Amino acid sequence: MSERRTRYPGPIAQAGTIPHSLIEQGFAEDEALAGVLDRYPAELFDINLYDYDEEGQVSLRTGARGRLNGAELLEAIKQGRLWVNLRGVETGWPELWAAAMAEFRKVETAYPGLKAVKNAGQLILSSPKARVPYHFDAAGVVLFHLRGRKRIYVYPGDEAHLPERAMEQVVSRQTTEELPYTLAFESDAQVMDLEPGQALTWPLYAPHRVENLDRFCVSLSMDFQTWPSRFRNGALYTNAVMRSRGGAPRQTDSMGQAELALRWAASLGLKRAGALKSKIAHYERQFEPEVGATDGAGALNN
Ligand SMILES: [Fe+2]
Predict the structure, then answer these.
(1) How far is the CA of 136 from the centre of ligand 1 (A)?
(2) How far is C-alpha 122 from the geometric centre of its chain's CA atoms?
(3) Residue 282 has what pLDDT?
(4) Which ranges constitute the DSSP H helices of 175-290?
(5) How many CA atoms lie within 13 A of 235 on its CB side?
(6) Which are the contacts of 173, defined by CB distance < 8 A and separation ≥ 6?
(7) Is residue 86 within 8 Å of 40, Cβ to Cβ?
(8) What is the value of pTM for the model shown?
(9) Pseudo-torsion of CA 132, 118, 196, 2, nearest 10°?
(10) Dmax over Cα atoms in the chain, in whole Å?
């Protein structure tokens, strides 16, 4: 298949997997995971609990790190319905990061023209029934799957599934809302079941969602910027500022590289000047992980 599933240029035309060797290196075992949970800085944890209505619309509760030790927290995730994200793997688990960057070089080789200028990683530990809602990342992503099985739904990167106005809002941090989603999108998804030892990547910005397939899952999600993605993110930010001031900017998918670069340059000054204040709400923590509690979510102990 060589069908292009996105309106944006880039070397990745559609979702695909390549093998990786992070499991053989021991990064997916309980002992290693419990150890990293024990020593990981509390401020780098995101602990989420997602619920969905019949229309597939999501609501989110957020948890505090709490006081479980690493082994207990691991158990709470295995028993519960939690999605636990450890940000900043670059510094939080440098051994895993070094191994993952070596694997990333193979991804770059597999997609000629792919050249990252900045990479960052999140280690995701999630419960057997956890599901991540429809969203896009303003970056390229390689999802190194380490344990369990998950089903990834990747949608076309066209205006219907990925409206630029919504992208502007996300890139300029004007909303925590995910992209607009309807069940009608489901027939447009490229659906892939991810097994341990596979790394999945997809076209830059492609919307996606994830369902765990009844197993405790561990993945390293690596995001990366390329010069083209930086330019486009900057252009989306500049467009957001123009729109907030009553302008009607052209969509970035109609712009060439030179215009994107100019708008990126403009975004640097606008950001420095604080042109748009982040409107991302500060979530009040609603629970902390607890072994044996419903969904693994116990009462907060302040
Ligand atoms: Fe994502």
Answers:
(1) 6
(2) 8
(3) 75
(4) 227-244, 257-272
(5) 22
(6) 276, 278, 279, 280
(7) yes
(8) 0.96
(9) 90
(10) 56
User: 207 with 136: CB under 8 angstroms?
Assistant: yes
Give 179 Cα–ligand 1 centroid separation in angstroms.
12
How many CB atoms are located within 10 Å of the residue 53 CB?
8
The answer to whether position 6 is within a domain reads: no
Measure 135 CA to ligand 1 centroid, in angstroms: 6
User: Taking a C-beta distance cutoff of 8 angstroms, is the pair 96, 89 a contact?
Assistant: yes
Rounded to 5°, the CA angle 20-131-120 comes to 45
Distance from Cα 211 to the centre of ligand 1, integer Å: 12
Answer whether residue 1 is part of any domain: no
Helices 257-272, 227-244: axis angle to 10 degrees equals 60
Q: Give the residue numbers spanning the domain of 242.
A: 16-297
Strand ranges in 107-264 using DSSP code E only, listed in sequence order = 118-126, 131-135, 140-147, 150-154, 190-194, 198-201, 208-212, 217-225
301 Cα–ligand 1 center, Å: 31
State the CATH number of the domain containing residue 154.
Answer: 2.60.120.650
Determine the distance separating the centroid of ligand 1 and the alpha carbon of 292, expressed in angstroms. 29
Are the beta carbons of 240 and 174 closer than 8 angstroms? yes
Question: How many structural domains are present in the chain?
Answer: 1
pLDDT in tens, 73-116: 999 999 999 999 999 999 999 999 999 999 999 999 999 999 99
Whether residue 51 is contained in a domain is answered as: yes
Residues 26-48: pLDDT tens digits? 999 999 999 999 999 999 999 99
